[in-house]
Structure formats: C-alpha cells, structure tokens
Amino acid sequence: MLSRRHLYRSGLDRGLLQNRLLLLGIATEMVFVWGLLYWPPLQRVLGTGPVAPEILLLAGLGMPLLFGLDLWRKRLLARAS
C-alpha cells in the first residue's frame, strides 16, 4: 500500500500524511477488520472470533518488514541504474 507502484520511489517520498484518501482507506480497513473480529453481530454471521495478541503482534510486524524489504530493493535498483 505505502510502497507505491514505482520502480525506485517509496510511498514516503511525498510524506505519509499527504494522501488523505490513503489514510481514509487505512482507517476504514482497520475498522472493518475490528468489526469482523470483535463485533458480536458480525462474529455470529461470519463465524469469526477474537485473535490472540501474539498473532496480532506477528501480523503487525509483517507490515513494516515487507515495506522495509521493498524499500531496500528499490534503493538497490536505483543504485544499479
């Protein structure tokens, strides 16, 4: 999401808080996921339930890891060209 579809540039080049539509999308996704996991009416309909904190932490660490690896790849490509 924040890595952008650009060969050499990161999503942070223009500033993290500059794209309000992107921030709205992130907030909407977070509310939707919370509803799926913790709001009883959706839990009953979809058969979901709370996730253990360790799993949430692991999932949360995956996002910056992927972003960092993609940023590293882009910097290597920029140096090579």
Note the topology.
Elements: H1 20-38, H2 40-46, H3 53-80
Task: Describe the structure in brief.
The protein has 81 residues and is mainly alpha-helical. It has three helices and no strands.
What would you call the structural class?
A: mainly alpha
Helix content: 55-70%
Overall strand count = 0
Main pleated-sheet profile:
none
Q: How does the overall form come out from the CA principal axes? A: elongated
- As for the number of domains, it is 1
- Detail the poorly predicted runs: none
Number of helices: 3
Q: What is the residue-averaged pLDDT? A: 83
How are helices and strands ordered from N to C?
Answer: HHH
Rg to the nearest angstrom? 17 Å
Distance between the termini: 25 Å
Beta-strand portion reads: under 5%
Account of the protein in words:
With 81 residues, the protein is mostly helical. It has one domain (20-80). The protein has helices at 20-38, 40-46, 53-80. The longest helix is centred in the C-terminal third of the chain and has 28 residues, at 53-80.
What key attributes describe this structure?
81 residues, elongated, mainly alpha
